[in-house]
Amino acid sequence: MRTEPPSSDPPGTTGFLTQGRRGASRPARPRRELLAFCATALLVLLVVSAGTIWLSERIARANALAEAERAAERLATLLVAPLLPGALAGVPGQAEELDRDVQNRMSDGSVTKMVVWRETGEIVYSSDPELIGRDDIAPSAEMLAAISGDTVSNVDEAPETSGTASGPQLEVYAPLDVAGERFAFEAYFAYEGIDRQAALLRGEIIPMAIGALVLLQVVQIPIATSLARRVSRQEAERTALMQRTMEASDRERRTIAADVHDGPVQDLAGVSYALSALRSSLPPERHATVDRLVGAVRHAVQSLRRLMVDIYPPDLSGPGLGAAIGDMAEPLRAEGVELIMDAGPLPEMTPDAAAVLYRTAKEALANVAKHAQAKHVWLTLEETTAAGMPAVRLEVADDGVGFPATGTDRRSEGHLGMSLLRDRVVDMGGTLRLSTREGGGAVLTAVVPLSHDQ
Protein backbone atom coordinates (compact mmCIF):
# COMPACT_ATOMS: atom_id res chain seq x y z
CA MET A 1 0.00 0.00 0.00
CA ARG A 2 1.22 3.50 -0.77
CA THR A 3 0.86 6.47 1.53
CA GLU A 4 -0.13 9.90 0.34
CA PRO A 5 2.93 12.12 -0.15
CA PRO A 6 2.89 15.55 1.47
CA SER A 7 1.93 18.35 -0.86
CA SER A 8 1.23 22.03 -0.58
CA ASP A 9 -2.15 23.49 -1.34
CA PRO A 10 -2.32 25.53 -4.53
CA PRO A 11 -3.20 29.21 -4.56
CA GLY A 12 -6.86 29.66 -3.91
CA THR A 13 -7.26 26.26 -2.26
CA THR A 14 -5.90 27.08 1.18
CA GLY A 15 -7.92 25.39 3.87
CA PHE A 16 -9.72 23.03 1.50
CA LEU A 17 -8.29 20.03 3.29
CA THR A 18 -11.22 18.58 5.17
CA GLN A 19 -10.99 15.88 7.78
CA GLY A 20 -14.15 13.91 8.24
CA ARG A 21 -15.27 12.74 11.62
CA ARG A 22 -17.31 9.68 12.17
CA GLY A 23 -20.86 10.83 12.25
CA ALA A 24 -19.86 14.45 11.46
CA SER A 25 -23.16 15.26 9.81
CA ARG A 26 -25.14 12.49 11.46
CA PRO A 27 -27.59 13.24 14.24
CA ALA A 28 -26.19 12.44 17.67
CA ARG A 29 -27.51 9.33 19.31
CA PRO A 30 -30.30 10.10 21.82
CA ARG A 31 -28.64 7.88 24.42
CA ARG A 32 -25.42 9.86 24.14
CA GLU A 33 -27.35 13.11 24.43
CA LEU A 34 -29.19 11.77 27.49
CA LEU A 35 -25.91 10.85 29.14
CA ALA A 36 -24.56 14.31 28.32
CA PHE A 37 -27.69 15.86 29.85
CA CYS A 38 -27.33 13.80 33.03
CA ALA A 39 -23.62 14.60 33.28
CA THR A 40 -24.31 18.30 32.81
CA ALA A 41 -27.11 18.19 35.38
CA LEU A 42 -24.79 16.46 37.85
CA LEU A 43 -22.05 19.03 37.23
CA VAL A 44 -24.50 21.90 37.71
CA LEU A 45 -25.78 20.25 40.88
CA LEU A 46 -22.24 19.98 42.26
CA VAL A 47 -21.39 23.58 41.36
CA VAL A 48 -24.63 24.97 42.79
CA SER A 49 -24.23 22.81 45.89
CA ALA A 50 -20.72 24.12 46.45
CA GLY A 51 -21.97 27.68 45.99
CA THR A 52 -24.87 27.01 48.35
CA ILE A 53 -22.53 25.63 51.02
CA TRP A 54 -20.20 28.62 50.67
CA LEU A 55 -23.07 31.10 50.81
CA SER A 56 -24.75 29.35 53.73
CA GLU A 57 -21.43 29.42 55.57
CA ARG A 58 -21.23 33.18 55.17
CA ILE A 59 -24.87 33.67 56.16
CA ALA A 60 -24.51 31.38 59.16
CA ARG A 61 -21.39 33.12 60.42
CA ALA A 62 -22.89 36.55 59.87
CA ASN A 63 -25.97 35.55 61.86
CA ALA A 64 -23.82 34.02 64.60
CA LEU A 65 -21.78 37.22 64.87
CA ALA A 66 -24.94 39.30 64.96
CA GLU A 67 -26.31 37.10 67.76
CA ALA A 68 -23.03 37.51 69.69
CA GLU A 69 -23.30 41.30 69.36
CA ARG A 70 -26.86 41.22 70.68
CA ALA A 71 -25.74 39.01 73.57
CA ALA A 72 -22.99 41.50 74.45
CA GLU A 73 -25.47 44.38 74.43
CA ARG A 74 -27.78 42.43 76.79
CA LEU A 75 -24.88 41.63 79.13
CA ALA A 76 -23.87 45.28 79.23
CA THR A 77 -27.40 46.56 79.81
CA LEU A 78 -28.88 43.87 82.09
CA LEU A 79 -25.90 42.39 83.92
CA VAL A 80 -23.16 45.00 84.29
CA ALA A 81 -24.94 48.39 84.15
CA PRO A 82 -27.14 47.91 87.29
CA LEU A 83 -24.24 46.96 89.60
CA LEU A 84 -21.25 48.80 88.09
CA PRO A 85 -22.01 52.28 89.62
CA GLY A 86 -22.05 50.84 93.17
CA ALA A 87 -18.94 48.79 92.52
CA LEU A 88 -17.08 51.88 91.24
CA ALA A 89 -18.34 54.00 94.17
CA GLY A 90 -17.13 51.43 96.69
CA VAL A 91 -20.61 50.51 97.99
CA PRO A 92 -20.17 47.49 100.25
CA GLY A 93 -21.19 44.23 98.59
CA GLN A 94 -21.77 45.69 95.12
CA ALA A 95 -18.41 44.61 93.68
CA GLU A 96 -18.80 41.11 95.14
CA GLU A 97 -22.33 40.76 93.75
CA LEU A 98 -21.17 41.93 90.31
CA ASP A 99 -18.33 39.40 90.37
CA ARG A 100 -20.73 36.65 91.40
CA ASP A 101 -23.23 37.45 88.63
CA VAL A 102 -20.47 37.68 86.04
CA GLN A 103 -18.93 34.35 87.09
CA ASN A 104 -22.32 32.66 87.02
CA ARG A 105 -22.86 33.91 83.48
CA MET A 106 -19.42 32.71 82.39
CA SER A 107 -19.85 29.30 83.95
CA ASP A 108 -21.23 27.72 80.76
CA GLY A 109 -18.07 28.66 78.82
CA SER A 110 -19.81 30.64 76.07
CA VAL A 111 -18.37 33.91 77.47
CA THR A 112 -14.72 33.73 78.51
CA LYS A 113 -14.05 37.27 79.74
CA MET A 114 -15.76 40.63 80.36
CA VAL A 115 -13.96 43.99 80.49
CA VAL A 116 -15.19 47.58 81.00
CA TRP A 117 -13.03 50.37 79.52
CA ARG A 118 -12.89 54.10 79.96
CA GLU A 119 -12.24 56.26 76.94
CA THR A 120 -8.69 56.86 78.21
CA GLY A 121 -7.92 53.14 77.99
CA GLU A 122 -8.21 52.45 81.72
CA ILE A 123 -9.84 49.17 82.67
CA VAL A 124 -12.35 49.94 85.44
CA TYR A 125 -13.73 46.41 85.75
CA SER A 126 -12.83 42.93 84.50
CA SER A 127 -13.80 39.37 85.23
CA ASP A 128 -10.05 38.88 85.63
CA PRO A 129 -9.17 40.91 88.77
CA GLU A 130 -5.54 41.29 87.65
CA LEU A 131 -6.61 43.56 84.79
CA ILE A 132 -8.58 46.08 86.93
CA GLY A 133 -6.84 49.42 87.05
CA ARG A 134 -4.48 48.85 84.12
CA ASP A 135 -4.12 51.85 81.83
CA ASP A 136 -1.09 50.82 79.80
CA ILE A 137 -3.05 49.24 76.93
CA ALA A 138 -3.59 51.50 73.93
CA PRO A 139 -7.30 51.90 73.03
CA SER A 140 -8.23 49.86 69.99
CA ALA A 141 -10.33 51.14 67.11
CA GLU A 142 -13.17 48.82 68.16
CA MET A 143 -13.13 50.14 71.73
CA LEU A 144 -13.25 53.73 70.52
CA ALA A 145 -16.14 52.83 68.22
CA ALA A 146 -18.06 51.48 71.23
CA ILE A 147 -17.33 54.70 73.14
CA SER A 148 -18.90 56.49 70.16
CA GLY A 149 -22.08 54.38 70.52
CA ASP A 150 -21.53 51.56 67.99
CA THR A 151 -21.50 47.83 68.66
CA VAL A 152 -18.66 46.14 66.77
CA SER A 153 -17.14 42.66 66.69
CA ASN A 154 -13.85 41.21 65.59
CA VAL A 155 -12.20 37.79 65.53
CA ASP A 156 -8.88 38.26 67.30
CA GLU A 157 -6.18 35.59 67.16
CA ALA A 158 -4.28 37.18 70.10
CA PRO A 159 -6.53 39.41 72.24
CA GLU A 160 -4.71 42.00 74.34
CA THR A 161 -6.61 41.01 77.51
CA SER A 162 -7.09 37.34 76.79
CA GLY A 163 -5.27 36.22 79.92
CA THR A 164 -4.96 32.45 79.93
CA ALA A 165 -7.40 31.97 77.07
CA SER A 166 -5.83 30.37 73.97
CA GLY A 167 -6.86 30.32 70.35
CA PRO A 168 -8.99 32.81 68.46
CA GLN A 169 -11.57 34.75 70.43
CA LEU A 170 -14.57 36.74 69.26
CA GLU A 171 -14.32 40.24 70.73
CA VAL A 172 -17.53 42.23 70.93
CA TYR A 173 -17.49 45.88 72.02
CA ALA A 174 -20.78 47.51 73.07
CA PRO A 175 -21.48 51.00 74.48
CA LEU A 176 -22.24 51.14 78.22
CA ASP A 177 -23.75 54.23 79.88
CA VAL A 178 -23.31 54.37 83.64
CA ALA A 179 -24.07 57.46 85.81
CA GLY A 180 -23.85 59.80 82.85
CA GLU A 181 -20.49 58.44 81.68
CA ARG A 182 -19.92 56.43 78.47
CA PHE A 183 -17.87 53.27 78.86
CA ALA A 184 -16.97 50.50 76.43
CA PHE A 185 -18.08 47.03 77.43
CA GLU A 186 -15.97 44.23 75.96
CA ALA A 187 -17.01 40.58 76.00
CA TYR A 188 -14.96 37.64 74.78
CA PHE A 189 -16.90 34.74 73.28
CA ALA A 190 -15.42 31.31 72.64
CA TYR A 191 -15.06 30.91 68.89
CA GLU A 192 -16.17 27.28 69.13
CA GLY A 193 -19.59 28.53 70.09
CA ILE A 194 -19.75 30.65 66.95
CA ASP A 195 -18.84 27.56 64.94
CA ARG A 196 -21.60 25.58 66.61
CA GLN A 197 -24.18 28.24 65.89
CA ALA A 198 -23.02 28.50 62.27
CA ALA A 199 -23.16 24.70 61.93
CA LEU A 200 -26.72 24.63 63.24
CA LEU A 201 -27.81 27.26 60.74
CA ARG A 202 -25.98 25.48 57.91
CA GLY A 203 -27.79 22.31 58.88
CA GLU A 204 -31.06 24.12 58.26
CA ILE A 205 -30.12 25.91 55.02
CA ILE A 206 -28.13 23.28 53.11
CA PRO A 207 -30.60 20.36 53.20
CA MET A 208 -33.40 22.62 52.08
CA ALA A 209 -31.46 24.21 49.19
CA ILE A 210 -29.67 21.09 47.95
CA GLY A 211 -32.72 18.90 48.51
CA ALA A 212 -34.73 21.17 46.22
CA LEU A 213 -32.04 20.91 43.53
CA VAL A 214 -31.87 17.12 43.82
CA LEU A 215 -35.66 16.90 43.60
CA LEU A 216 -35.58 19.07 40.48
CA GLN A 217 -33.01 16.78 38.86
CA VAL A 218 -35.00 13.68 39.82
CA VAL A 219 -38.06 15.19 38.16
CA GLN A 220 -36.11 16.23 35.04
CA ILE A 221 -34.44 12.88 34.34
CA PRO A 222 -37.67 10.95 33.51
CA ILE A 223 -38.79 13.85 31.32
CA ALA A 224 -35.44 13.89 29.49
CA THR A 225 -35.55 10.10 29.14
CA SER A 226 -39.03 10.28 27.63
CA LEU A 227 -37.91 12.99 25.19
CA ALA A 228 -34.82 10.96 24.25
CA ARG A 229 -36.97 7.91 23.51
CA ARG A 230 -39.31 10.01 21.43
CA VAL A 231 -36.39 11.45 19.48
CA SER A 232 -35.01 7.93 19.01
CA ARG A 233 -38.33 6.72 17.64
CA GLN A 234 -38.56 9.70 15.30
CA GLU A 235 -34.99 9.10 14.18
CA ALA A 236 -35.75 5.44 13.47
CA GLU A 237 -38.86 6.43 11.53
CA ARG A 238 -36.91 9.01 9.55
CA THR A 239 -34.16 6.49 8.81
CA ALA A 240 -36.73 3.93 7.65
CA LEU A 241 -38.44 6.55 5.51
CA MET A 242 -35.12 7.59 3.98
CA GLN A 243 -34.27 3.97 3.30
CA ARG A 244 -37.61 3.42 1.58
CA THR A 245 -37.11 6.62 -0.41
CA MET A 246 -33.66 5.51 -1.54
CA GLU A 247 -34.97 2.10 -2.48
CA ALA A 248 -37.83 3.67 -4.44
CA SER A 249 -35.38 6.02 -6.15
CA ASP A 250 -33.11 3.09 -6.98
CA ARG A 251 -36.00 1.18 -8.49
CA GLU A 252 -37.08 4.23 -10.47
CA ARG A 253 -33.56 4.83 -11.80
CA ARG A 254 -33.29 1.17 -12.76
CA THR A 255 -36.62 1.37 -14.58
CA ILE A 256 -35.61 4.54 -16.44
CA ALA A 257 -32.26 3.03 -17.43
CA ALA A 258 -34.01 -0.11 -18.67
CA ASP A 259 -36.51 1.94 -20.67
CA VAL A 260 -33.72 3.97 -22.26
CA HIS A 261 -31.80 0.80 -23.09
CA ASP A 262 -34.76 -1.07 -24.51
CA GLY A 263 -36.23 1.95 -26.29
CA PRO A 264 -34.12 4.80 -27.77
CA VAL A 265 -30.80 2.92 -27.62
CA GLN A 266 -32.17 -0.08 -29.50
CA ASP A 267 -34.00 2.13 -31.99
CA LEU A 268 -30.92 4.25 -32.70
CA ALA A 269 -28.78 1.12 -33.02
CA GLY A 270 -31.25 -0.19 -35.59
CA VAL A 271 -31.10 3.12 -37.47
CA SER A 272 -27.30 2.90 -37.48
CA TYR A 273 -27.38 -0.62 -38.91
CA ALA A 274 -29.98 0.39 -41.51
CA LEU A 275 -27.93 3.39 -42.63
CA SER A 276 -24.82 1.24 -42.90
CA ALA A 277 -26.74 -1.28 -45.03
CA LEU A 278 -28.24 1.51 -47.15
CA ARG A 279 -24.85 3.04 -47.90
CA SER A 280 -23.93 0.48 -50.56
CA SER A 281 -27.10 1.20 -52.53
CA LEU A 282 -26.51 4.95 -52.74
CA PRO A 283 -24.39 6.87 -55.24
CA PRO A 284 -20.80 7.44 -54.15
CA GLU A 285 -21.38 11.17 -53.70
CA ARG A 286 -23.91 10.31 -50.92
CA HIS A 287 -21.57 8.07 -48.96
CA ALA A 288 -20.02 10.95 -46.99
CA THR A 289 -23.47 12.11 -45.89
CA VAL A 290 -24.41 8.59 -44.79
CA ASP A 291 -21.12 8.24 -42.90
CA ARG A 292 -21.81 11.48 -41.02
CA LEU A 293 -25.30 10.29 -40.16
CA VAL A 294 -24.01 6.93 -38.97
CA GLY A 295 -21.38 8.68 -36.83
CA ALA A 296 -23.99 11.03 -35.35
CA VAL A 297 -26.29 8.12 -34.52
CA ARG A 298 -23.47 6.13 -32.90
CA HIS A 299 -22.42 9.20 -30.90
CA ALA A 300 -26.01 9.56 -29.70
CA VAL A 301 -26.03 5.89 -28.70
CA GLN A 302 -22.80 6.36 -26.73
CA SER A 303 -24.25 9.45 -25.00
CA LEU A 304 -27.35 7.50 -24.04
CA ARG A 305 -25.25 4.63 -22.72
CA ARG A 306 -23.23 7.09 -20.55
CA LEU A 307 -26.52 8.59 -19.37
CA MET A 308 -27.70 5.12 -18.35
CA VAL A 309 -24.51 4.61 -16.37
CA ASP A 310 -25.06 7.95 -14.62
CA ILE A 311 -28.68 7.12 -13.84
CA TYR A 312 -28.01 3.59 -12.68
CA PRO A 313 -24.28 2.90 -12.11
CA PRO A 314 -22.98 -0.62 -12.57
CA ASP A 315 -21.86 -2.88 -9.75
CA LEU A 316 -19.29 -0.89 -7.79
CA SER A 317 -18.29 -3.53 -5.27
CA GLY A 318 -14.78 -5.00 -5.37
CA PRO A 319 -13.18 -4.96 -8.82
CA GLY A 320 -16.30 -3.48 -10.38
CA LEU A 321 -15.39 -0.03 -9.03
CA GLY A 322 -12.16 0.25 -11.01
CA ALA A 323 -13.85 -0.94 -14.19
CA ALA A 324 -16.72 1.52 -13.76
CA ILE A 325 -14.33 4.42 -13.21
CA GLY A 326 -12.33 3.36 -16.26
CA ASP A 327 -15.50 3.43 -18.38
CA MET A 328 -16.16 7.00 -17.23
CA ALA A 329 -12.88 8.09 -18.80
CA GLU A 330 -14.02 7.26 -22.36
CA PRO A 331 -14.98 10.90 -23.14
CA LEU A 332 -11.44 11.98 -22.18
CA ARG A 333 -9.91 9.32 -24.41
CA ALA A 334 -12.19 10.42 -27.27
CA GLU A 335 -10.76 13.94 -26.93
CA GLY A 336 -7.18 12.66 -27.14
CA VAL A 337 -6.36 12.74 -23.40
CA GLU A 338 -4.25 9.81 -22.31
CA LEU A 339 -5.45 8.11 -19.12
CA ILE A 340 -2.90 6.15 -17.09
CA MET A 341 -4.85 4.13 -14.55
CA ASP A 342 -3.45 2.16 -11.63
CA ALA A 343 -6.28 0.28 -9.91
CA GLY A 344 -5.04 -2.45 -7.61
CA PRO A 345 -7.17 -5.11 -5.92
CA LEU A 346 -9.67 -3.49 -3.58
CA PRO A 347 -11.20 -4.99 -0.45
CA GLU A 348 -14.92 -5.30 0.13
CA MET A 349 -16.51 -1.97 1.03
CA THR A 350 -19.95 -0.67 1.83
CA PRO A 351 -22.16 0.49 -1.07
CA ASP A 352 -22.04 4.03 0.34
CA ALA A 353 -18.23 4.12 0.33
CA ALA A 354 -18.09 2.73 -3.23
CA ALA A 355 -20.67 5.28 -4.41
CA VAL A 356 -18.70 8.17 -2.87
CA LEU A 357 -15.48 7.05 -4.58
CA TYR A 358 -17.30 6.59 -7.90
CA ARG A 359 -18.88 10.05 -7.78
CA THR A 360 -15.64 11.66 -6.62
CA ALA A 361 -13.80 10.19 -9.61
CA LYS A 362 -16.63 11.23 -11.91
CA GLU A 363 -16.56 14.85 -10.71
CA ALA A 364 -12.76 14.98 -10.89
CA LEU A 365 -12.65 13.61 -14.45
CA ALA A 366 -15.44 15.97 -15.51
CA ASN A 367 -13.46 18.93 -14.17
CA VAL A 368 -10.36 17.76 -16.04
CA ALA A 369 -12.35 17.53 -19.27
CA LYS A 370 -13.91 20.99 -18.82
CA HIS A 371 -11.12 23.09 -17.32
CA ALA A 372 -7.72 21.40 -17.18
CA GLN A 373 -6.67 21.44 -20.89
CA ALA A 374 -4.57 18.41 -19.97
CA LYS A 375 -2.83 15.88 -22.17
CA HIS A 376 -2.38 13.20 -19.54
CA VAL A 377 -4.41 12.06 -16.54
CA TRP A 378 -3.11 9.71 -13.85
CA LEU A 379 -5.73 7.88 -11.81
CA THR A 380 -4.77 5.75 -8.81
CA LEU A 381 -7.16 3.57 -6.81
CA GLU A 382 -5.62 1.55 -3.96
CA GLU A 383 -6.11 0.24 -0.47
CA THR A 384 -4.74 2.33 2.43
CA THR A 385 -5.52 3.20 6.05
CA ALA A 386 -7.19 6.22 7.63
CA ALA A 387 -7.01 6.80 11.39
CA GLY A 388 -5.92 3.18 11.78
CA MET A 389 -8.94 1.87 9.84
CA PRO A 390 -9.01 0.24 6.38
CA ALA A 391 -9.74 2.74 3.62
CA VAL A 392 -9.43 3.32 -0.13
CA ARG A 393 -7.34 6.11 -1.63
CA LEU A 394 -8.36 7.76 -4.90
CA GLU A 395 -5.95 10.14 -6.62
CA VAL A 396 -6.65 11.99 -9.88
CA ALA A 397 -3.73 14.04 -11.25
CA ASP A 398 -3.36 15.91 -14.55
CA ASP A 399 -0.75 17.97 -16.38
CA GLY A 400 -3.13 20.79 -17.26
CA VAL A 401 -3.30 24.45 -16.30
CA GLY A 402 -3.83 23.79 -12.59
CA PHE A 403 -6.19 25.58 -10.25
CA PRO A 404 -7.36 29.14 -10.93
CA ALA A 405 -5.88 31.93 -8.86
CA THR A 406 -9.37 32.74 -7.53
CA GLY A 407 -9.68 29.31 -5.94
CA THR A 408 -12.01 26.38 -6.41
CA ASP A 409 -14.95 27.66 -4.39
CA ARG A 410 -17.43 28.89 -7.02
CA ARG A 411 -20.63 28.46 -5.05
CA SER A 412 -21.45 32.15 -5.53
CA GLU A 413 -21.59 31.45 -9.28
CA GLY A 414 -23.93 28.51 -8.80
CA HIS A 415 -21.24 25.80 -9.23
CA LEU A 416 -21.76 23.34 -6.37
CA GLY A 417 -19.96 20.28 -7.73
CA MET A 418 -16.79 20.62 -5.69
CA SER A 419 -18.65 21.62 -2.52
CA LEU A 420 -21.00 18.66 -2.80
CA LEU A 421 -18.02 16.43 -3.52
CA ARG A 422 -16.31 17.60 -0.34
CA ASP A 423 -19.48 17.11 1.69
CA ARG A 424 -19.91 13.54 0.44
CA VAL A 425 -16.37 12.56 1.41
CA VAL A 426 -16.50 14.28 4.81
CA ASP A 427 -19.89 12.75 5.51
CA MET A 428 -18.30 9.31 5.13
CA GLY A 429 -15.56 10.19 7.62
CA GLY A 430 -12.88 10.64 4.94
CA THR A 431 -10.50 13.37 3.83
CA LEU A 432 -10.25 15.38 0.63
CA ARG A 433 -7.25 17.41 -0.54
CA LEU A 434 -6.59 19.57 -3.58
CA SER A 435 -2.95 20.31 -4.33
CA THR A 436 -0.64 21.38 -7.12
CA ARG A 437 1.11 18.64 -9.06
CA GLU A 438 4.86 18.85 -9.27
CA GLY A 439 5.64 19.82 -12.85
CA GLY A 440 2.29 21.54 -13.39
CA GLY A 441 -1.33 20.59 -13.16
CA ALA A 442 -3.58 19.63 -10.29
CA VAL A 443 -4.02 16.69 -7.92
CA LEU A 444 -7.18 15.59 -6.14
CA THR A 445 -6.74 13.03 -3.36
CA ALA A 446 -9.63 11.44 -1.49
CA VAL A 447 -9.34 8.86 1.28
CA VAL A 448 -12.62 7.13 2.19
CA PRO A 449 -13.01 4.51 4.96
CA LEU A 450 -14.33 1.13 3.86
CA SER A 451 -17.15 1.35 6.39
CA HIS A 452 -18.75 4.15 8.36
CA ASP A 453 -20.62 3.96 11.65
CA GLN A 454 -24.01 5.58 11.51
Give a structural overview.
The chain is rod-shaped, with a radius of gyration of 47 Å. The chain has a domain of 142 residues: Histidine kinase-like ATPase, C-terminal domain (Heat Shock Protein 90), CATH 3.30.565.10. With 454 residues, the protein is an alpha+beta fold. The longest helix is centred in the middle third of the chain and has 89 residues. 52% of the residues lie in helices and 17% in strands. Strand 2 and strand 3 form a beta hairpin. The strands form two sheets. A six-stranded mixed sheet has the order 1-10-11-9-8-7. It contains ten helices and eleven strands. 24% of the residues are buried.
What tags apply to this protein structure?
disordered N terminus, 10 helices, 5-stranded antiparallel β-sheet, 454 residues, alpha+beta, single chain, 52% helix
Low-confidence stretches: 1-28, 411-415
The CATH topology name of the domain at 313-454 reads Heat Shock Protein 90
Principal-axes geometry comes out as rod-shaped
Strand fraction: 15-25%
State the distance separating the first and last CA atoms.
27 Å
Q: Taking all residues together, what is the mean pLDDT?
A: 79
CATH superfamily of the domain at 313-454: Histidine kinase-like ATPase, C-terminal domain
CATH classification, class level of the domain at 313-454? Alpha Beta
